[in-house]
Design brief:
The protein is of the alpha+beta class and 315 residues long. It has three domains: 3-62 and 213-243, Pseudouridine synthase; 64-211, Pseudouridine synthase; 248-307, PUA domain (Archaeosine Trna-guanine Transglycosylase, Chain: A, domain 4), CATH 2.30.130.10. Helix content is 19%, strand content 31%. It has helices at residues 15-26, 56-59, 101-109, 132-137, 186-196, 222-230, 255-262, and strands at 3-9, 31-33, 42-49, 64-72, 75-76, 85-86, 113-117, 126-127, 130-131, 147-156, 165-166, 172-180, 201-211, 214-215, 250-252, 267-268, 279-283, 289-296, 301-307. Strands 1, 2, 3, 4, 7, 10, 11, 12, 13 and 14 form a ten-stranded mixed sheet that branches. The longest helix has 12 residues, at 15-26. The model is unreliable at 311-315 (pLDDT under 50).
């Protein structure tokens, strides 16, 4: 059972919990995921099965896309709806609920492109070997270095034709779509967006709609996974390992080179347009993924770095 599953993660469960449930359903020990979603969040969670777990390193840095609801009115200590409200009125400049479309667009535009973010205290990022959320739960607040991320898209969604929804309790909901580089903290983006409008803000909803080339349209629920396994139709939703690396260049190997790659030995390649050090999929004549190689431009060789067809290959 080697391949990729796209799971629509439900709210209220950790990403590790989803992996544990999938492991129980499929009776498969080798299962992992490629990027954590917060427990309150939903959407695309890429699950790798069997030998495909060795591909996680190539998927951890792909772009992501989200749909979110930013609740304007107050902040929380976690940056999302699960936290405790942080008391305090909006800044005097704020006109809650009366923001113009121009003000909203200017605030959105200020975050597009390359920006720096301060990781939130309630995150899994480590400082001196300790996870920030563990420190936060002890009431500690430590200095964090900014990280560089890229916001490709940050734009409003109008699900009911209105830009801002008045919740009639002093808060306002603003729906957005975010396309960003890996490592972006959407919670921090929501908080910083609120600051641009001189009001507290936090994430009320977060749904991941894309991870690399995998979209929410391909995702199945855990209940659907259970049905597919029971009906022996898992093959209709289990994607081949090749699908996880669709953006990498590839080369077809002859039978002799397949044997070499299966034992972790380098393969001679003809003139190639690959950059030195570039990762390349090494496939057999049947399009089966044999290994991920690294191109040595000077020697014109592909050196296998991850071998998939032969688990005992020398890596």
């Amino acid at each position: 059972m080697d391949g990729v599953l796209i799971i629509d993660k439900p709210s209220g469960i950790t990403s590790h919990g989803v992996v544990a449930r999938a492991r129980h359903i499929l009776h498969e020990r080798r299962i992992g995921h490629t990027g954590t979603l917060d427990p309150f969040a939903t959407g695309v969670l890429v699950i790798l099965l069997g030998k495909a777990t060795r591909l996680a390193q190539f998927l951890s840095s792909v772009d992501k896309e989200y749909e979110a609801i930013i609740r304007l009115g107050y902040s929380t200590d976690t940056g999302d709806r699960t936290g405790n409200p942080i008391p305090g009125p909006a800044v005097a400049k704020s006109k809650p609920g009366n923001w113009s479309e121009h003000e909203i667009e200017e605030a959105l535009k200020s975050f597009r492109g390359e920006i720096d973010q301060i990781p939130p205290m309630y995150s899994a990022k480590k400082v001196e070997g300790k996870k920030l959320y563990e420190l936060a739960r002890r009431g500690e607040n430590v200095e964090r270095q900014p990280i560089h991320v890229c916001i490709h898209e940050f734009e409003a969604i109008k699900p009911d034709g209105h830009l801002i929804k008045d919740n009639l309790d002093g808060t306002f909901d603003f729906h957005v779509r975010v396309s960003c580089s890996s490592g972006t903290y959407v919670r921090t983006l929501a908080e910083d967006f609120g600051q641009r409008l001189y009001v507290g803000a936090h994430l009320a909803e977060l749904r991941r709609t894309r991870v690399g080339d995998f979209s929410i349209n391909q995702a199945i629920t855990l209940d659907e996974l259970k049905i597919h396994f029971a009906e022996e139709s898992l093959g209709t939703v289990l994607l081949p390992m090749n699908a996880a690396l669709s953006r990498l260049p590839f080369v077809h190997l002859n039978a002799q080179d397949v044997r070499r790659a299966n034992h972790g030995r380098e393969v001679n390649v003809a003139e190639a347009g690959w950059a030195d050090g570039e990762k390349v999929k090494m496939c057999d004549a049947d399009e089966q993924l044999i290994a991920i190689g690294q191109y040595d431009a000077a020697a014109k060789l592909l050196r296998p770095r991850v071998v998939l067809r032969n688990s005992e290959a020398n890596l």
